């Protein structure tokens, strides 16, 4: 059972998400919060498998809450899925940099939202398909390089870790990567656990952004 916390300052959104997710046989909505402070307190008390957070909320923003819950040294680490009405702005980038496992637009199809919750609970990142290319291009153009550069990563990463990074950038799940490399899923997870600290990132989604940002892989051209 996937235990989910929902936080949004709009009652209609909270109710809609609660009804949508609660109707799934493998999802249990364990808490609903109306602001960031309440969301953080509930997340620490309930330790849900996924926290679905709005960005703009009274008190702490969704970004603030994500930063608290996704920090490697957090007392309670909770994967975060950000749901936003903004299709491209600093709030979205801030959420990603804070360690959120993914984000979607609130007008995403219901089945997409449900699938995203399951992906985040399974340790996989997700980005709204309508945003992927634009987000990556914006990161390349607007964000400075991470402390670990692409050239330096060639020295730090093993051949297998580099292969996994390239497959991650193609949007593959751990299971997809395991099949492609003919290894166990647990082996992929072990490589990821060693690779992320080398790159100076906290999540697989940040690793993908890092790969594009440092030109390890290229942003597809429109229509490609």
TrEMBL record:
Keywords: DNA-binding, Phosphoprotein, Transcription, Transcription regulation. InterPro entries: CheY-like_superfamily (IPR011006), NreC/VraR/RcsB-like_REC (IPR058245), Sig_transdc_resp-reg_C-effctor (IPR016032), Sig_transdc_resp-reg_receiver (IPR001789), Tscrpt_reg_LuxR_C (IPR000792), WalR-like (IPR039420). The modification 4-aspartylphosphate is found at residue 54. Residues 150-215 form the HTH luxR-type domain. CDD domains: LuxR_C_like, REC_NarL-like. Residues 3-121 form the Response regulatory domain. It comes from the Bacteria. One of its GO terms (biological process) is regulation of DNA-templated transcription. GO terms for molecular function: DNA binding. Pfam families: GerE, Response_reg. This is LuxR family two component transcriptional regulator. It comes from Pseudonocardia endophytica. The lineage of its organism: Bacteria, Bacillati, Actinomycetota, Actinomycetes, Pseudonocardiales.
């Amino acid at each position: 059972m996937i235990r989910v916390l929902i936080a949004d300052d709009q009652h209609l959104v909270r109710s809609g998400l609660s009804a949508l997710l609660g109707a799934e046989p493998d999802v249990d909505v364990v808490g609903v919060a109306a602001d960031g402070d309440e969301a953080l307190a509930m997340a620490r008390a309930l330790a849900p498998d996924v926290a679905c957070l709005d960005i703009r909320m009274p008190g702490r923003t969704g970004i603030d809450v994500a930063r608290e819950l996704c920090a490697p040294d957090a007392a309670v680490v909770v994967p975060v899925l950000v749901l936003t009405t903004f299709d491209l702005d600093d709030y979205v980038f801030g959420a990603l940099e804070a360690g959120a496992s993914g984000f979607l637009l609130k007008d995403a199809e219901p089945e997409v939202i449900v699938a995203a919750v399951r992906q985040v609970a399974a340790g996989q990142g997700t980005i709204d398909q309508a945003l992927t290319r634009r987000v990556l291009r914006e990161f390349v153009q607007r964000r400075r390089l991470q402390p670990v550069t692409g050239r330096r990563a060639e020295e730090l990463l093993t051949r297998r870790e580099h292969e996994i990074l390239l497959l991650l950038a193609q949007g593959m799940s751990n299971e997809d990567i395991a099949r492609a490399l003919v290894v166990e899923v647990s082996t992929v997870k072990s490589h990821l656990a060693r690779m992320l600290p080398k790159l100076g990132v906290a999540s697989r989604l940040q690793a993908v952004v890092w790969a594009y940002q440092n030109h390890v892989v290229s942003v597809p051209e429109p229509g490609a």
